[in-house]
Amino acid sequence: MFELSDKAKKLQAELTEFMDAYIYPNEEKHHHQVEEAEDRWAPVPIIEELKQKAKAAGLWNLFLPDSEFGAGLSNFEYAHLCEIMGRSEMAPEVFNCSAPDTGNMETIARYGNKEQQDQWLKPLLAGEIRSCFSMTEPDVASSDATNIACEIRRERDEYVINGRKWWSSGAMTTTSKIAIVMGKTDPNAEKHKQQSMILVPLDSPGVKMIRPLHVFGYDHAPHGHAEIQYDNVRVPASNMLLGEGRGFEIAQGRLGPGRIHHCMRTIGVAERALEAMCKRANAREAFGRKLSDFDSIRKDIARSRLEIEQARLLTLKAAHMMDTVGNKVARQEIAMIKVVAPSMALKVIDRAIQVHGGAGVSQDTFLASAWAKVRTLRLADGPDEVHLDSVAKMELRQYR
């Protein structure tokens, strides 16, 4: 069941080698370039340099299963590569495999027409531009997407967009050129056919970047999470994705693979945190003993290993099911991993922070930033409560 193809094994080995040679040695340089940049939202030189190396090595656009645009990997195979990339904050962008671009590229590849693909998908695949997904709104509980109130109104051969969005991740970077905006086209339609998704160039008149949002004090430059006002923004009617009222349909097709990506990257972060915890415990002494000699530390290390393995197996099972029986049948497993993976990683990272003491909450390790990012995942793809409710409904249905 869990056997990788020869191609996937080869890419796994090459990706690991690339990470060791270029990613880990340049992480501190990346951090300093972001901190010292005149424009915090401009592309980071070391990232742009490593992108060219990744392209030359054939480690580019590794996602997009079942698509002519991708690397020809299944969800199960790509999940293994996601874990490797997830060990570093900068790695996914280097390989053009970072959110929300991956989800947006999958959306345009699957639901866009040839004109939309030529205009937006091709430069995204080439890494020439970036993008954002503009769905969540500050004035409604966006975990229930039927609440989305942003207006998308048809006027002759154009659509007019009015609304306020936030957590439009990726919008702040200067290379972000296109947003996929979810809004309401027909408030009188059936509940799940009121919403649509439309392509909105970010340089359109009326698109106003209000502010970058912070995550536990981090602004995540140069990527950033924007609050955006769409004020009578006009785009051609041809920018509509798939058709009016198809927004929920697109969202369901987009979120399955995206959740697998997030979960496996999260497992990569957890693995690196456990590695850091073990190295620190072996190197540090307190009260006349190495930290690794304390029973409480050893139990934390053991529990972390158990939890990582459990989460990985559940995620790989979900990915395998997506490949073999489809996203709809795998929806319970997808919902489960969305709860399990970030919750597990938060516990492992928290234990690693504790072992590192003051260094764990400072900028001197990756742990504090990693914790903040992973914590957002318990909200970003839908809150835990929504996924738990879905799992419970599917479980209860078996016993009616």
Task: Output the keywords.
11 helices; Butyryl-CoA Dehydrogenase, subunit A, domain 2; 400 residues; Butyryl-Coa Dehydrogenase, subunit A, domain 1; 3-stranded mixed beta sheet; 4-stranded antiparallel beta sheet; 50% helix; 3 domains; alpha+beta
Tell me what the structure shows.
This protein is an alpha+beta fold and 400 residues long. The protein folds into three domains: 6-112, Acyl-CoA dehydrogenase/oxidase, N-terminal domain (Butyryl-Coa Dehydrogenase, subunit A, domain 1); 130-241, Butyryl-CoA Dehydrogenase, subunit A, domain 2 (Beta Barrel), CATH 2.40.110.10; 248-397, Butyryl-CoA Dehydrogenase, subunit A, domain 3. 50% of the residues lie in helices and 15% in strands. It has eleven helices and nine strands. The strands form three sheets. The chain has a four-stranded antiparallel β-sheet, with no helix packed on it. It has a three-stranded mixed β-sheet with strand order 1-4-5. A two-stranded antiparallel sheet has the order 8-9. α1 packs parallel to α3. The protein is globular. 45% of the residues are buried. The model has no long low-confidence stretch (mean pLDDT 95).
